[in-house]
Amino acid sequence: MTHQHSSQRRLSQNSNAQDIPVTAATSPGATGSTPATPLEPGSWPALLAPRLAHFAAVARTEHVTRAAEELGMPQSTLSRSLARLEGELGVDLFARHGRTLTLTPAGRAFSASVERALGEVEKAAETVRADADLTSGKVAFGFLHTMGSETVPALIRAFRADHPHVRFTLVQNYGEWMIEALRAGRLDLCLTSPVPDAPDLVARRLDEQRLRLVVPDDHRLASRRRIRLAEAADEAFVTLEPGYGLRRITDALCAEAGFRPRVAFEGEEAETLRGLVAAGLGVALLPPPAVPRPGVVELTVTAPRAVREIGVAWMSGHPDTPPVAAFKRFLLSRRGHLLPG
Q1: What is the rounded distance in angstroms from the CA atom of residue 302 to the CA atom of residue 293?
Q2: What is the pLDDT along the chain (341 residues), one digit of tens a residue?
Q3: How many CB atoms lie within 10 A of CB 331?
């Protein structure tokens, strides 16, 4: 499972209750990629690529007629292709003895590189075909950290009951990072909140999750079961960093309740925030935990209505491979009962 961090700062104390600037996430397409080979007209790849398989077949058989039969093409066409290849390189690759050919030293050196290149093409083709196979293909799926312990494992288990061999690349991160990963082609689908609204994306609301005000168990409000958010206006808040969807929702709910939260700590994980609340360092608006956390009390917020919408998003106009299409249909079928409980 891949876990991308949004910034170098893991936890920030904000003693002045000012927002800490966001450290920009690394662009999803900026790391680990191979520099593109130029294919402009006149470049070596553009000139040579169509003829490399012809050269390799003749180099293996050392016979034009047998190579032409192997390739299923006329011998004259193959001979012209080889002649053009040598002309473009300006090097004799073969010594000719009638219809029999032998590689020159330059031809042997070139043949070794061509075989490696064609092997990589073969491997790449087999990989993309395997990833697109309905029964055993691959889905690159992103989701929020808070959905990693229960929701996503349960979804994948249910999906694999009918598609037992489909493989997943799983990426946990915050919403904005995942949207950029969709655009960069690193993800097929993502579960995120808030549900994005952008012209290049398709997004569907699947469910909503109630948020609770989490307070220390010795807090003045800990004996309550319900609370209006305005009653916490004077409290120090611990929140996710700016840029996280839950942070935007927290700020919006507090604004609706008539105040701006006084932020004391910012982090990247909801359960880390719960730990800070248990330590008495503030209160937090959080989704329900997977496992009850000692040291905190979770209060139902009666006003404003404290929920976050969960949705699935993908790139508009991008064709799906069969396994991606199957998993997308499965997710859409879970509308209204995506979340456990």
Answers
A1: 22
A2: 444 444 333 343 443 333 323 333 334 444 444 555 555 656 666 667 778 889 998 999 888 889 889 889 999 999 999 999 999 899 999 998 876 789 999 999 999 999 999 889 889 889 999 999 989 999 999 999 999 989 999 999 999 999 999 999 999 999 999 999 999 999 999 999 999 999 999 999 999 999 999 999 999 999 999 999 999 999 999 999 998 999 999 999 999 999 999 999 999 999 999 999 999 999 999 999 988 999 999 999 999 999 999 999 999 999 999 999 999 999 999 999 999 76
A3: 20
Count of residues making up the chain: 341
> Residue 157, CB half-sphere, CA atoms under 13 Å: how many?
8
Q: Give pTM, 2 decimals.
A: 0.76
Under the phi-then-psi rule, with left for phi > 0, alpha for psi from -120 to 50, and beta for the rest, what region is 231? alpha
The three-state secondary structure class of 194 is coil
Q: Which amino acid makes up residue 224? A: R
- Residue 29 is classified by DSSP as T
Going by C-alpha positions, the residue among 298, 80, 331 that lies closest to residue 202 is 331
Exposure string for 198-237, b = 16+ CB within 10 A, e = fewer = eeebebeebbbbebbbbbbeebeeeeeeebebebbeebbb
Cis status of the peptide bond prior to 304, with omega within 30 of 0: yes
Cα(158)–Cα(168) distance, rounded to whole angstroms?
A: 14
97, β-bridge pairs:
100
Q: How far apart are the C-alpha atoms of 241 and 267, rounded to whole Å? A: 6
For residue 2, the tally of other CB atoms under 10 A from its CB is: 11
Question: Which residue bears the tokens 């929701």?
Answer: 151
